[in-house]
Amino acid sequence: MDTDSEPYVRLATLRQLHQSVAQLNTARSLADTLQTVADGAVAGLGFELAAVNLVRSDGDLVVAAVAGHPGAEAMMAGRVGSRASWERRLAMGEAWGELRFIPYTEGWVLDDDDVPQWHTAGPAPRFSDEWHPMDRLFAPMYSSDGDLLGVISVDKPRNGRRPGAWGCEALQMYAFQAAIAISNARLRSNMQRALVRLEREQQALRASEESFRQAFEYAPSGMAIAEMGGDHHGRLIKTNDALCRLLGRPASVMRRYSFSDLVHPEDIGTLLRTSAEGGRAELRISRRDGSYVWVSLRNSVVADAADGPRFLLTHVEDIEERKRHELQLAHRASHDSLTGLPNSAELRARLSGKLCARPGPAPALSEPPPHIGTHGFSVDGFDGTGVEPLDGGYDHHLHVVAPESDDPADKGLAVLFCDLDGFKSINDRYGHHCGDAVLIEVARRLSGGVRDNDTVARLGGDEFVVLADGLCRADAADLAVRLRNAIIPPIRVDGRAVRVGASFGIGWAACGMSTEEVLHSADQRMYVEKRSRSKGQRRAG
């Protein structure tokens, strides 16, 4: 008869299991709990060797505790096995309920993986259920959510036999209880760390007034304490000298404000999210002279043990110089380094922002009725045809439509493509230094000949593009003539006068066109205009 099935053996095992589980609940820390799990498997379940492999935050498993054999502990403790190797072991093992068993006849394929192990060679079993030194038995531990917490690996049953049904059931129950104990130990550890942090905050708050005043007042960067909750939420209670100097406001005046009164209107949302949860943000705060300075706010919630969060300790750092540098870098990425004009990428971005994939309706009236936009855009649910869209939606996009007549009221977005005439000969004759000076002066003249809201961009080489919205056909032609006449006058470089001409092609942007189609159209018109004049006429403008 199988001795594992004998009632007295089961009762004795159950008592040992109960004692081991009871000891799990007395452990003071996570490390103690893990060692108690390993010790309990040896003391209460009849194995000579047990190891607890714990899942780390990166998913791999570390040998967190070993019991039963000092040599095995010295060799295995602290070593890590990959998650992939462990999943392979659990997948290939024979399912003994929740347990996984790999007999010595199959385990040789695992000898070279990275899972720490302690196995010795031995003779073949003398009978079917004799334990072989290369046999492996694993008890996975899962959290309440079904996530793998770790694996208990056991070896060398004292009776020399593979565990029977009752032994497997006992090990399985023990692994279940161990998973609960480990989860509870982790929770306790997290709670203890949280309590330590809270205690440190309380100790800092209870520090002597003089020590706190010294650290607060003489900090090299701005510091402030603000109320949290109540009718005066966010009101500044105390500010240090550095913050007062940064904002140009005395401390007595600062107490009248909260940060929400001082930040830029566009940054209010950022401030509210930061002050509600603690954390950090970068935003703009107003100075006494009305200007704004970029600062980094870093908040810490100072909690009261009884009433919860009460104060917000805010560190204010001046980052104006860094922000200015970031803006300079952004400007360099979107502007031509030689002329300072928007570059090709920025030109395309601005033009693309005006266009949409759906063509706008053609204007049918010189004076549209109140519900029709000047370029066919929708107002109050109507489009340029005067018919409400089928979907009943409201179209917020101002559709761009090319003028189809010479009517001065028929206006659109003009795209003037400019190519310099005679520039190559200047480069060849006087060098690139002279050519660069010419390009800089041409850029200046073009910029001086357009309105503030127009765009002058350098497309590359000696090609420039002007975007001018709200022009009729006659206006665009007049603008091209004015800009050409502005370019013609001699340009003085290093004591010599050089001249270039300019050829302009006028295209029109319209929704339904791509950016490249718009630029190509203006480019083609420029070449038609250039070929229509002789070389001498080009140089003369």
In short:
By secondary structure, the chain is α+β, with helices and mostly antiparallel strands. 40% of the residues lie in helices and 23% in strands.
Q: Could you estimate the helical fraction of the residues in percent?
A: 40-55%
In spatial order, strands of the major sheet run: 3-2-1-7-6-5-4
Number of separate structural domains: 3
According to CATH, the homologous superfamily of the largest domain is: GAF domain
Strand content: 15-25%
Q: End-to-end distance, in Å?
A: 115 Å
CATH architecture of the largest domain: 2-Layer Sandwich
Q: Assembly state here?
A: single chain
Question: What structural class is derived from the secondary structure elements?
Answer: alpha+beta
The top level CATH class name of the largest domain: Alpha Beta
Poorly predicted tracts of residues: 363-394
